[in-house]
Specification:
elongated, about 90 residues, 3 helices, Methane Monooxygenase Hydroxylase, Chain G, domain 1
Length: about 90
Amino acid sequence: MSHARTNKDQLLARTRRIAGQVAAIERAIADEAGCAAILHQVAGVRGAIAGLMDELVADHLQSHIVAPGLSDADRAQGGDELLAVIRRYTK
C-alpha cells in the first residue's frame, strides 16, 4: 500500500497503541479483573480498530479510486480490492 508511506509514522503509532490496549486486556484477564472493566477495554480496542480501518479505507479510496490520472482499469482494481476488504470486515 504505497499511499501508507506518507502517514506511516501515524499508522504505526496507532497500531502500537492498539497493541498496548490488547496487552492490557490480556493482563486484565490474567489478573482476573472485573468483567465490566474487561468489557470496556475490549470496546475501546474495537473502536480503535474501527478508526484505523476507517482511515485505511479512506486512504485506499483516495489513492486507488478517485485520484486523478488513474486509468479505468486501475480504478476498477482499486474498487474491487476495497469491496473485498469491506465484505471481509463486515462478516
